[in-house]
Amino acid sequence: MMKIDILTLFPEMFSNLEHSIVGRARDNGKVQIDFHNFRDNATNTQKHVDDYPYGGGQGMLLMPQPIFDTMDKIPHENARVILLDPAGRKFDQKFAEELSEEDHLVFICGHYEGYDERIKTLVTDEVSLGDFVLTGGEVATSVIIDATVRLIPEVLGKAVSHEEDSFSSGLLEYPQYTRPETYRDMKVPDVLMSGHHENIRKWRIKESLKKTLARRPDLLETYDFSEEEKIMLAEIKSEL
Q: What is the DSSP string of 59-105?
């Protein structure tokens, strides 16, 4: 079972983790998630967790004391301790796969303008969702947990369910269809109705390559092509 501890001022923002795949994983004992409001460990009379930065500047910074004292109460010797920070490593599917193999994750959710730099001595990973700024780390933490927990073995219904997801294979996922066969004059591609598994397999590979080339060509720069995929990509480019 994976253990996840979350340091946050707003545990109520994580109600989404009670539902869907993560909720079922918690119910089935695949993951345990505990919340720690570090304001509870603030030692000043007003229970403040932030203060003005030395040297002046805009905004408020999280103080080290409430964070350190909260961490002292959480056994985390072998944990990956993740700080949500715009300057951190960009989160992606590869990182989610990496985290899914851990036994214990600890997330520190910041708020206000930033952190006292000394808090980072507690951290193993500084992580960012992208080149934008959120009000706090709670939303980003929810995203990372969702992307990670679904990769834990037996969390999804089928072991291969996540392997064909966009980014898991290195390519964007091929188009998919379900009933009805025709809807508002839009018809399911004939190949998917043919029952010919080899033709379907080839169609899906080619469509993944086509979508990736059109929408995320940067992914192809590092993708490890098979000989079959090289031929298909050349065909796609010749058709443009």
A: S-EE-HHHHHHHHHTS--TT-EEEEEEEEEEEP-HHHHHHHTT-SEE
Residue 102 neighbours by CB distance under 10 Å:
15
Q: Are 9 and 38 in contact (CB under 8 A)?
A: yes
175 is annotated as an active-site residue? no
Query: Per the residue annotation, which of 86, 126, 146, 173 is the catalytic one?
Result: 86
Q: Give the CA angle between residues 81, 86, 88 to the nearest 5°.
A: 45
Helix (H) or strand (E) holding 214: helix 197-215
pLDDT digits (tens, 9 = 90+) for 91-147: 999 999 999 999 999 999 987 778 999 999 999 999 999 998 888 999 999 999 999
List the 50-51 sheet strands across, edge first: 50-51, 61-62, 114-115
pLDDT at 160 over 50: no
Kindly report, residue by residue over 50-78, the tens digit of the pLDDT: 999 999 888 899 999 999 999 999 999 99
pLDDT interval class at 156 (50, 70, 90)? confident
Catalytic residue among 113, 126, 146, 164: 113
Q: Is 165 a catalytic residue?
A: yes
What's the rounded Cα separation, in Å, for the pair 144 and 61? 24
Q: What would the two tokens of residue 127 be?
A: 């992580």
Determine which one of 97, 126, 165, 229 is catalytic.
165
CB 111 within 8 A of CB 84: no
Instruction: Report helix, strand or coil for 2.
Output: strand
Could you give the CA distance from residue 151 to residue 227 in angstroms, rounded to a whole number? 29
